[in-house]
Amino acid sequence: MIPLSSIEDYLSDQSEGMRGLITWFLNLVMRTEALHQAGAEAYERTDSRLCYRNGSKDRSLVTRFGDISLKKPQFREKSFETQVFGKYARVEKALVNAIAESYLQGVSTRKVQAIISHLGIDQLSPSSVSRIARDLDDQVVAFLDRPIEQAFPYLFVDASYYKIRDGPRYVSKALLLIAGVREDGYREVLGARIAACENEAFWSGMFDELKERGLTGVQLVISDGHRGIQTAVSTAFLGASWQMCEVHTTRAILKNMPKKVQRDITDRLREAYGNEQRLQALADELYEEGHQKAANTIERFLPGLLNYTAFPKAHQKRIRTTNGMERINKELKRRTNVIGAFPNEDALLRLAGAILMDINEEWVTGGRYLSMDEE
What we know:
By secondary structure, this protein is an alpha/beta fold. It has helices spanning 4-12, 14-38, 86-104, 110-119, 126-144, 200-212, 227-236, 246-254, 259-272, 276-288, 292-301, 313-319, 323-336, 345-365, and strands spanning 53-63, 66-75, 154-166, 169-181, 187-195, 220-223, 241-244. The strands form two sheets. Strands 5-4-3-6-7 form a five-stranded mixed β-sheet, with helices on both faces. Helix 3 crosses helix 5, helix 6 runs parallel beside helix 7 (227-236) and helix 10 runs antiparallel to helix 11. It is elongated, with a radius of gyration of 25 Å. It starts with a helix and ends in a 10-residue tail after the last helix.
């Protein structure tokens, strides 16, 4: 039975209540695992017992609702094995490894040294760091190179930017992500790569790799307005269309507008999206009002702003922006902000890959993103 106190906490404070419910459930999972591994309940007299309990050890777990403290069972004769910390351990190892690499290469600040001490890894040797890296790299490479076994009618492309050490310099590089919606309506993370630029050749190469892994059926690619993506889509996916993200469009237009009129322009854009005549009329109005750059921006993106309207109406809200990708990037930033600058590209891809693996597991085991039977 779920504890009444956890239900009451949830009704009064959902975030705190969820922490209580998750704590109760995961502790229950580990007690059940301990029962199977010991072959008997605690204090039970039976010939089938395999080992004896030895109390429990406090173990923290980071969740989307905050840190929780769990009671991990202990055995006298052997180690207790649990699946509870599997996903957590993968991201934790990648995070610790990135911090340790920074520390060993002299990248760290006093803040990073304090984090290392808090995590208890101040005695990690270079060989330990390398061993952790090799284990994580194998998992990330296997994930990013796995075969693609279904058709993906919709692809989403986006990028976030990170500081990476390059010799004596720190440079900004892009972590480019591709995700998609399968023909059965579920989402998957399909690819990730670090790049110093986003030209057509790069994107064409990344799209070709996806096709070599089995990608088929692409009908619409949603992204920001980078010209390299547009050109690469037209050559890599014949018959597919490119959709300019409406959120990125609004940002590009407002960039050229005075702050005092931005709210009004945002409202006018929201009413015009999805209708070619209204968008062109808005561009004409802005030109007459003296906002020539904003008007030119609308006209430049106009051919890519309406392609989503050719698809089922039930899909349109989710295929006209890259909002889902931006949520991924927000999670990546949240989990990597303790690093500051990464010591190298491998450290960034290792940690990002571990986080993306967790996100992908949630997607493919959760609910459908789109109902593909709807017209």
